[in-house]
Structures are given as structure tokens and as C-alpha cells.
């Protein structure tokens, strides 16, 4: 039987002379990549839960190149597709001295820009970006960062609900939620529906893309607190859900984040490649352990491109949430190993350091103070009786960003100070935090009380969502959180809970924006410029334009 392409190709990790192409096929086969007419990579597929994948490592490429490529399954060419409206897909390598552009965004519903989808969620900025880039000359280094909620496993669109219903038609068990994915096959279809749309498929095939999960990739409010974890563990279907979620994340998102060297050091990769037949048991065992023992695996990773160091930080799976961490004050959003990793990599040396945190580090100050107050009360700052009420509020209002992890903010402040002082290499020109999650966009310049003006520039940049705009009523609440009265109330709450101050301070620069956006940061030398794109007109032909441009 001739194999066909089920999903992909996705152009993933790219280096100066290397590139990684990921594909999913409908049966086992040999995947061949031909770059600029020459066969450059061939690999056999591996199998997980009956699904077949290949990670093709292309080496020996010239620096800073942009070369067309084709995908063959066996001897059959399956990509590019005949009659495509988009240019040929290319592999891109990086150039150490070239200007660098990072595109970034989060929170995307796959609507296909149907009229109903545009009305409900707004125009899809990934689709719009594909149309824009298809007509632009792409010079220098270009990388796309997808920083959370690449899929919504707990809030399904109609095509996915139909798939789940059909898949479970013969299953009479009533302990599985009907409107959420649970099994590996369901997650695999969720990814296929998210990335099969032609404009998005072309974009992911031709722009090197890095990814990191947020809560909806697994479930809303994932790892908000120890109480949240205990509640989820009581559901009989949760073991299968978290195992499938982390297993498919490793296959569909994480594998392509890694360089060939890093992938070679991954213990699960070795087991999967050595497996005779289906590697489902190895993947499931790994995924459950990553959940049960968060320190057993590091999802965070580093990527160097041009003069920019990108640190993709896991702020979800590795959280330290236990009662012991609460008692000793080390409750953290990164976990002990995650903080050590960030300390080792948030240093001097490159011209720019970018920390991609799915949840914003610097929120509007009113929300930040509310989260800090809530964490303190949950820990007993006002005695025992308010603790369960504060925990209910934490989960109800999603009070689980960096502000709810004061220990982590203090550790981060120390790392920023060390890098800006040049304690571990020449001080970078900028330290930028790129985030999504909150469904509105903004910039917040950051200052450190121990650092003089005129040195390393620090800022929080948020671009969210790609396609899941806030309802109008929620937008009014967002504007309220950025107001002066809300700041004063939040500050008073932290004072009443005796929350210690932190070294980092910030204020929003300009207004928040609650429409769909994709962000961009352009680096050249020691300069950086932040841009946000939106599509004023929705629909299948909408082109994005810059609505805000700020020199960082």
C-alpha cells in the first residue's frame, strides 16, 4: 500500500547548516527530503499508538540559505501539493550576522476564517500571516514562536466534537467527558485539524517554528495549584488524558524544538527509535512520569539565532506546587530545576536575550497585586479559615501567572540583574519577555531597582490571541485592570497580606489591545523594534497590517 502524507511537513529547528522537517504519514514508510533537487535526508517512520511519524534531519546546508524542498514517501512525491496557491516551501538556515525577526503568538482556534468563525473568534492571524509572507521577500533570520494553546483540548470546535462522538460510538462508558479529548487518537486528530488548513500548513512548512505548551494544550488552568492537581486526580479518565496530552505534545510539538544533538540526548527518543513496532508503551510511561514527577524531564530549551538567545520556558508542567514548597516559600512557576536552567542561560554574551513565557511575567499591576495577595492568603497569611475561599478564587479567576509565584519573580529579578551587570559575560542590549495567554496585547517597560538607567533595556511584550478574541464585556474588564484605581486597590491588598516587595517594577506603555494579533520583534545589531499586526477586515483574503510599532 502506498503511504500518504497525513500532516506536515513542518519546518522546525533550523541552525546555520541544518534544518529539521517533521511529518506524519498514514502508514510506515521511508521519508525522503530533496532540497534544491538533491536528495539530502532519508529516514524511516516510527510508530506511536498506530500513528506514523518521521523527523528528518537535513545537514550540510549553506548558512543563511533559503532553498526549495520536496517530500517523498518512498518514491512518490507528496509535497508540494500540485496546484497550491502558495510558493514552493523552503528550508531556511540561519546566518550568525544577519538581522533576526521573531514572530510570536498564542491561543488559536482553527476556524478556517469562515464567516461564522470570524464573527465568533475574529480573523485567524496565522492564516493572515501566511498570506502576507507569501508576497514578501524574506531576508535575514525568521523564526515563528508558538507560545501556548496551539490546540484546545478542552473546548472543541464542531468538527472535533463530531470526530470524538464517532470515535466513541461503540464505547458505552460514561466516565469520559464528551466535549474534551482524552485518548491519543483524539489528540492526533486535534493536531491534524489545527494544522491542515492550507495557508497554515504552508506557513509551518516554510518558516522555522518553535513551540511550548500552555494550559489548553492539556486542560484549562493546568497545574494552577496543588489543590487543582488533587481534584483532577480524582477523575478516572485523567490518567489517560494527561498521558495522551503530554505524549502527543512530545511527538507533535517538542521533538521538532530540539537540535539533532539535543534530540540525540533525549532518553525517550532513543527508546522510540529502538522500539520494534509500536512505541506507545514507552511514550505513555514517559508522559505519566513527566506529570507525576515534574522534575524528571526538562521541557524548557534554548535556541540561538543570529545575535539573539531565545529561552523557551516551561511555566506549566514543572511547577513546584506541593505543601512543602508552600511552607518553605519555594512554590514556583518553573520548579527548582527550571530556575537553575534559567539562571544558567539568562546571562550576558548575546546582544539580546528573549525569554518566551507562555503566561506573562509582568501583568497590569492591579492583576499582579491581586495574584500576589491571593498566593499569600492561600498560604495562610490571614489564618486558616480564608485559605479554601482564596483557593476557590484562585481557580475561578485564573490567578496563576508569575504574580502568583512571588518566589519565582524574586529569582527572576536576580537573574536579570546579573545579566544586566555583565556578571556572566558582556551585558545584553535587551532582555525581553515574550508572552501570550491573556487574550490582549501590550508592552510594559521594566526597571530593576538595583540597576541604573541607560543600561540593558528590559521589557514585557505580549501578543495574544492569534484567533480567539475576547467578548466585548470581558474587554471592558481588561481596561479596568489597567486603571489607576484598580492598581491602588491591588497594592492595598498586598500590603494587608504583608507581601514583600520585589526588585522588578513596570507600567504599561500605552493601551492594551484586545483583538487578534501576531507580534514581531526585529533585531539588528543592538537595536530591537516591537511590532503588532492585526487584520482590520476578517475573511479568507484578509491581509494583516501593523497597528503598533515601538522601539524597545
What order do the helices and strands come in, and which of them pair?
Blueprint: E1 5-14, E2 19-25, E3 30-35, E4 38-44, E5 46-48, E6 51-58, E7 66-73, E8 76-79, E9 90-92, E10 100-105, H1 115-121, H2 125-133, E11 141-146, H3 158-167, H4 184-195, H5 198-206, E12 209-211, H6 226-233, H7 238-254, H8 260-264, H9 267-274, H10 280-292, E13 301-305, E14 308-313, H11 323-328, H12 335-345, E15 352-357, H13 365-378, H14 387-396, H15 406-420, E16 430-435, E17 442-448, E18 457-462, H16 472-481, H17 484-496, E19 504-506, E20 518-524, E21 527-534, E22 545-551
Parallel strand pairs: 10-11, 11-12, 14-15, 15-16, 16-18
Antiparallel strand pairs: 1-2, 2-6, 3-4, 3-7, 5-6, 7-8, 7-9, 10-20, 13-14, 17-18, 17-19, 20-21, 21-22
Helix pairs in contact: 2-5, 3-4, 4-7, 7-10, 13-14, 13-17
Helix segment count?
17
What is the arithmetic mean of pLDDT?
94
Helix content: 25-40%
Topology, number of strands: 22
Q: What is the radius of gyration?
A: 23 Å
Taking pLDDT < 50 over at least 5 consecutive residues as the criterion, the unreliable ranges are none
Order of the strands making up the biggest sheet: 13-14-15-16-18-17-19
Classify the secondary structure makeup into a structural class: alpha+beta
Which descriptors would you attach to this protein?
6-stranded mixed sheet; 552 residues; alpha+beta; single chain; 17 helices; globular
